[in-house]
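User
Take a look at the entry that follows and flag anything odd:
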Amino acid sequence: MAIRRPPRLIVIFLVLIAGVQFATADDPVPATWPHQFHALLFMNYSGDLSMINLWYDWTNGRNFNIIQEQLGGITYDLEWNNGTSFVYTLDESKSCRSAQLEVGPSLYARLFSRAENT
């Protein structure tokens, strides 16, 4: 006696119904971003490896990166919420430079207006 298989149309219908039920489930809610945290990042810039200690502090409006090159020195990068950034070293050269980076709504307005013009 032969085993009778269900018609393919019924199987496809059941799979589609199950898919609709999964798609209508509640979307996940992301966790709130912590106001302060520390992260250890390993970056690979086409073979040049770096280890970055990131200290993020939203409460005090700053972001501090300690960048250790694989075979080089340590660079410190202190960034403030107003766009001011100080990049310095504490080795023999004791170099320091600052930059004013555009942040917030003015940056987004400039980026979007540039995208509309192209």
Q: What stands out?
A: The two ends are 70 Å apart (CA to CA). The beta strands are 36-45, 48-57, 62-69, 74-80, 84-88, 96-100. Helices lie at 8-23, 105-117. Residues 33 and 58 are 10 Å apart (CA to CA).
